[in-house]
Specification:
CATH topology of the largest domain in chain A: Tetracycline Repressor, domain 2
Radius of gyration of chain A: 19 Å
Largest interface: A-B, 52 and 53 residues
Largest sheet of chain A: none
Distance between the termini of chain A: 60 Å
Helix content of chain A: over 70%
Structural class of chain A: mainly alpha
Number of strands of chain A: 0
Order of helices and strands of chain A: HHHHHHHHH
Oligomer: homodimer
CATH superfamily of the largest domain in chain A: Tetracycline Repressor, domain 2
CATH architecture of the largest domain in chain A: Orthogonal Bundle
DNA sequence: GACGGTACTGCACCGCCGGTGCGGTTTTTA
DNA sequence: TAAAAACCGCACCGGCGGTGCAGTACCGTC
């Protein structure tokens, strides 16, 4: 990583901390440059404006989360050849991952953007959209594999089910923040797991 | 309603439209006073600062939503004496209500506050917390009534289940906004309904 | 019909923040 | 060693939240 890339990454690091802690517009550029030990001019050398910063944060978030899910679901599939058991293990691991995060899940930058969409330009909204559609495709594949093996106990669209995973995680984060109880998010993920179990798992007799 | 109360309500109306459309801090006070046909001084006569406005918006939101849910669940219970069927009908009505909203659900002001919590003071966060805990109590009672009649097919906490309703709605709103498809929220509510059905409904044989 | 409170208006002003412009300087690379 | 990349320093602009205060229109009460 070159010197410029290092500085850019350092800016993104301190910006992400602040954004997740107190929201995007409560995070001032002056505060970012102070914590990143750079000048305002230096900041605007790397980012055209605050929108470009948001865009870069979301893009990086997509990458990091993709690797995280790849790792998590990969480990889950190693633990079981069965697609349903793999998914259930994956959701359990996800709940544990969220629970172990110090101070709870730091919050999702995608939701932050979704709730202030007029503040961002088309580029940022597109990046946000791509992130969510990426999750949809990923979880849809997961559920399709399960549905090929197990009959469904209720007639629901797999695409909606794929979105359900994201919904519950995002909603769980909102609830955890609103109530001030960081454990809520992982509890909600476990309820999602309960649903997947009831929806696909064959019952004896 | 006195003259002052009318003005105050008019300010809240135009503020709410803007906040739901583009976020709280993207909504300027100058814009609000222009649309409400009042002066800046007039605004600060009714609200000490922007925090007081947020607080008032949330308080009013709690009231309106409480009436909406009372009406909706009341109608659902009229249609069926059975608590489970009442809940399933209620969730269906909720999904239809959300689907019929022009341009999709306008978004939840509570989540807006949750994602910018450092921007607001303790008063606002407390009001937000009360709103969410109110939902928890409401839905918890609903599930307790069901659980007294029907055995549960999976061992989950009723309090977590109560939060699940809010999670799915809030998460569904985030997803709808992020993807740009207003139908998503109601689809997610129907998946929640599917879970409640599988969790409580006795299967024949 | 004078009185006093309520509900404002008008205006000047402050500080913070996002953003611009540009000249100068250091560091890295070819 | 010269050019290109990666900054620094500083002045300045406009928008926005917010303050302060004097003046005024409305409106029910005695």
């Amino acid at each position: 990583m070159s010197r410029g890339e290092e500085t850019r990454a350092r800016i993104l690091d301190v910006a992400q901390d602040s954004v997740l802690a107190k929201g995007f517009d409560a995070t001032s550029i002056e505060e970012i440059v102070a914590n990143a030990e750079i000048t305002k001019s230096g900041f605007f050398y790397h980012f055209r404006d605050k929108n470009a910063l948001a865009r870069a944060l979301i893009d990086r978030h997509i990458e990091v989360e993709k690797e995280l899910f790849d790792d998590l679901l990969g480990r889950a599939r190693e633990l079981s050849d069965d697609p349903l058991q793999g998914a259930l293990i994956g959701l359990k691991l996800l709940a544990e991952l969220i629970e172990d995060m110090p101070g709870g899940h730091p919050g999702c930058i995608v939701a932050t953007a979704a709730y202030q969409d007029r503040l961002f330009d088309q580029d940022v909204r597109d990046a946000n959209r791509r992130a969510v559609l990426g999750w949809r495709a990923r979880f849809r594949r997961m559920f399709e594999e399960i549905a090929q093996v197990y009959p469904m106990r209720d007639d629901v669209e797999l695409e909606h089910l794929a979105d359900f995973v994201s919904s519950v995680v995002e909603g769980g984060i909102v609830m955890a923040r609103a109530v001030g109880d960081p454990l809520i998010t992982s509890q909600q993920v476990m309820l999602l797991r309960s649903y997947i179990k009831l929806l696909f798992e064959p019952r004896i007799q």
